[in-house]
Structures are given as C-alpha cells and as structure tokens.
Amino acid sequence: MTLDDLPLAPVSTRPDAAMDGYVVTLDTSGLPTGLGMAEIRCGGAEKQNTGQELPSAVLLPAHLTVHELLTSEAGTLLALNPFGAVVLDSSRILGVLEHRTIARHAASVDVPIGRPRSDLPHPEDAVLAGTVGVPVARVLCRCGRLNQITLYDPDYPPTCSGPAGDDHPLVLRER
To answer: Measured on CA atoms in the order 154, 82, 61, 49, is the torsion positive or negative?
Structure first.
C-alpha cells in the first residue's frame, strides 16, 4: 500500500488565510518548509497561525509504501514534526499523513532491527532509473540556514553549513 492510498488530511498552502486544519509554508521554489495547524493555542486563547511558528516539514513521496517508510531511515524523520508528514507526488501536495494514520498501519509491518552505523550501502544502490523521490525533512538550524536532511538522529546530528560557510552540528531552531 503506497502513501497516496492512505487517508490524507487536507492542507492549505496559505497560512494567513486558513482558519482550521493543517497549513504549510512554502519556499520560493514551492516546496514546503513548515507544517502545522492553522490555529494555535496561546494561554487558552486561539489565534491564527501566520506560518512563522510552524515545525519543520517532513516530505514523503507518494509512491513510497508504508513498509518502506517504517523500515528505512525515512522513519527517523517522523519525529521532527508533531503532526505528521506532507505527501507529495511529482507536481503537487497531496495532503498530510498524520501520525495516528501511520500508527494504525504500523501494526501490520514487520520492522527489522536497525543496521549498524558502519554498514554502508552497496555502491550499485546509487544507480536508479527514472524519477526518484526521497523522503526528506526541511529544517531550520539555529543559525538560520534551511537544511534538507534524509536521516535524523539527535545523538549524532547532521552537519549544517552555516551562512558564513562554517560547518557545525545542526541544532534545530525552536519555532
């Protein structure tokens, strides 16, 4: 079963105009950078989310199966957004795959034990035919740089090449 076969929640690309449900912020190329709720609670009161407070967007290709999502390194990205992930096909946003939907389908998936960090993939795995969609997360580092990552381990954060070219460990910006 591919992700586009699962029930996806609708999402708006206009955080300033959405009144309820999920919203995404987009960069200049049209790719999501954040995913959150249109209304946020502040001390018991609700206010409209302008998009500045959205958590990092996790992007999943529609052709990915639930088994592939849960048994690959893509599963490490799911913790980066408290709501779920944005499912994309080649030209548009299909919707939000919520964590509760993933949990319902995860019970039937046999997840293998993770591979050791030193076990590198085979070189022939890098040669793929056709258009390839890879699960990614688009996260802001504390330094302000937008990073695109395919694996996230908080104990071994990926490297961020800062605005001045100074490489440092990626520290997620609190939104």
So the answer is: negative
pTM value? 0.74
> CB count, 10 Å around CB of 162?
15
Over residues 118-139, mean pLDDT: 61
Q: Residue 132: which of 62, 75, 32 has the closest Cα?
A: 62
Residue 162 has pLDDT above 60, yes or no: yes
CA pair distance 159, 175, nearest whole angstrom: 20
DSSP state of 9: B
CA 53/CA 109 separation, integer angstroms: 34
User: Which amino acid is located at 72 in the chain?
Assistant: S
Phi–psi pair at 123, nearest 5 degrees:
-60, -30
pLDDT 10s digits, 24-53: 988 888 889 899 888 754 444 445 545 567
CA distance 60 to 57: 10
